[in-house]
Amino acid sequence: MKNKFILIAVAMATIIFSCEKEKEDNNDLTAKSKVLNVNTSMMNWLYYSFEKDTLVTITEAGNDLTWDLAIQYESFQTNGGTSGSGIGAVLDMGKVDFAAITYESIKDSLSKFISDDSMSVYDLSTMPPKTVKASRCIPMEAVFKSPTGPGTRTYEPNLHVYIIKTASGKHVKFIGESFFNDEAIEGYINFKWAYLD
User: How confident is the model at residue 41 (pLDDT cuts 50, 70, 90)?
Assistant: First the structure.
């Protein structure tokens, strides 16, 4: 009888633990992982649509609402502010648990979103390179640490969770995870994202 009771207790504990684990995982079931080859975009922008979950071809980025996030190697733009005609913007949540971020958890921060603005960048199309003003998503400039000086180029991710407001006003949570592919070749942005609303 005692053994039977122990077996029932172990079975119940296993079921409860499994349900809790499943509940935790369900918070992140809609998250998608992407790897984009940005080696072709050292000088050009690639345009990503969260709605279509793919890169989109753009004729005139400033007047196009089909893209939400533009990527030029390790730089980013959102479709808003100085970058586009949408209402895109971004909020840096810092190092927080990606799975724990919900729309409810950011509702009090909706007024803190930052639209794209101009910043000084090097124009590599001129020799020698000169400094020019260009549109950027300034909070996302730190997603990957730019290499400086000699040594290993790690492009270490800052592991911050960013809330991106899309061109149409939806909210997406985003985290950069790596700048390399499976063969350790740089120029492959690995990120995870999920809609919040």
Answer: low
